[in-house]
Automatic annotation (TrEMBL):
Functional summary from the UniProt entry: Associates with the EF-Tu.GDP complex and induces the exchange of GDP to GTP. It remains bound to the aminoacyl-tRNA.EF-Tu.GTP complex up to the GTP hydrolysis stage on the ribosome.
Protein name: Elongation factor Ts
InterPro entries assigned: EF-Ts_dimer_sf, Transl_elong_EFTs/EF1B, Transl_elong_EFTs/EF1B_dimer, Transl_elong_Ts_CS, UBA-like_sf
NCBIfam families noted in UniProt: tsf
Classification via Gene3D superfamilies: 1.10.286.20, DNA helicase RuvA subunit, C-terminal domain, Elongation factor Ts, dimerisation domain
GO cellular component, one term: cytoplasm
Annotated stretches, region: Involved in Mg(2+) ion dislocation from EF-Tu: 80-83
Keyword terms of this UniProt record: Cytoplasm, Elongation factor, Protein biosynthesis
Gene from which this protein is expressed: tsf
Localization terms from the record: Cytoplasm
SUPFAM superfamilies: Elongation factor Ts (EF-Ts), dimerisation domain, UBA-like
Source organism of the structure: Limosilactobacillus frumenti DSM 13145
């Protein structure tokens, strides 16, 4: 049997919302595999649905710039919120985002090589690092193109802790911005149900079936219940089918259509998602409870 570490229990607790001992039991039952442990909890009805939990750890801000039919969404990181709120950091972020939207570099290395008054963008990052006393780094960006008849919608939450960029076919900027606000708030995984892979659908269907059987439902209605739960799950993770945050009586797709548009694409950045920050004291606290 694999050794279950406190960090694994912490991560499973964050994803599922269950208690320490339930998390440990699930990890033991799944030999330390986090995904299998989540399935175990869902099948047992302890965690009814996986909670998206990007591990937000790094500080910094994200920004969006539009240049004609091109937009860029950028994440710039710092070590603390204090530096992220400083003028040198925010000025650099605006400069980086504008440069990327205008020059459309292929990747981070190409972006760092862009020419600036101080030499290159990399030189600007170094200068800001020296000025603030903290490492400042360009983590990621995405360049998004639209056609002449399309609409960009940009929204920044908490000054750039979350950034969302939306493209609508047709529509207008106000509608696109409302959708971007929804994306920032609700964090959809996919645009439409058609974008969900067969493997993901088969996996979710299997989990829902096991959960339903464990609830003791009659075998003859299990499949119907499973499909109902799968449809509900898809309506929660797919932007087009989600209830629009400003008017829950409409789906997002219905809201956009009513305003002369059609969903085309979206990008959402949450600063620091996927970067793990050390939480040694909390880990020790959990370890003490496991022993």
């Amino acid at each position: 049997m694999a050794e279950i570490k406190a960090a694994q229990v912490m991560e499973l607790r964050k994803k599922s919302g269950v208690g320490i001992m339930d998390a440990k039991k699930a990890l033991v039952a799944s030999d330390g595999d986090l995904d299998k442990a989540m399935d175990y909890l869902r099948e047992k009805g302890i965690a009814k649905a996986a909670k998206k939990s990007g591990r937000v750890a790094a500080d910094g801000l994200a920004d969006i710039a539009v240049s004609g039919n091109t937009a860029a969404i950028v994440e710039l990181n710092s070590e603390t919120d204090f530096v992220a709120a400083s003028d040198p950091f925010k000025d650099l972020l605006k400069k980086v985002t504008k440069l990327i939207s205008e020059n459309k570099p292929a990747d981070v290395d190409a972006a760092l090589a862009l020419k600036t008054d101080n030499g290159t963008l990399k030189d600007d990052l170094i200068a800001t690092t020296q000025k603030t006393g903290e490492k400042v780094s360009l983590r990621r960006f995405q360049v998004v193109e639209k056609n002449d008849g399309d609409s960009f919608g940009a929204y920044l939450h908490q000054g750039g802790k979350i950034a969302a960029l939306v493209v609508l076919e047709g529509g207008d900027e106000a509608t696109a911005k409302d959708v971007a606000m929804h994306v920032a708030a609700i964090n959809p995984e996919f645009m439409t149900r058609e974008d969900v892979s067969k493997d993901r659908l088969d996996h979710e269907r299997s989990v829902f079936k096991e959960e339903t059987l464990n609830e003791g439902k009659p075998a003859k209605i299990v499949d119907k219940i499973v499909e109902g739960r799968l449809n509900k799950f898809l309506s929660e993770i797919c932007l087009a089918d989600q209830s629009f945050v400003k008017n829950p009586d409409q789906t997002v797709a219905e809201f956009v259509k009513a305003n002369g548009g059609k969903l085309k694409s979206f990008v959402r950045y949450e600063v620091g998602e996927g970067i793990e920050k050390k939480q040694e004291d909390f880990a020790q606290e959990i370890q003490d409870q496991l022993n």
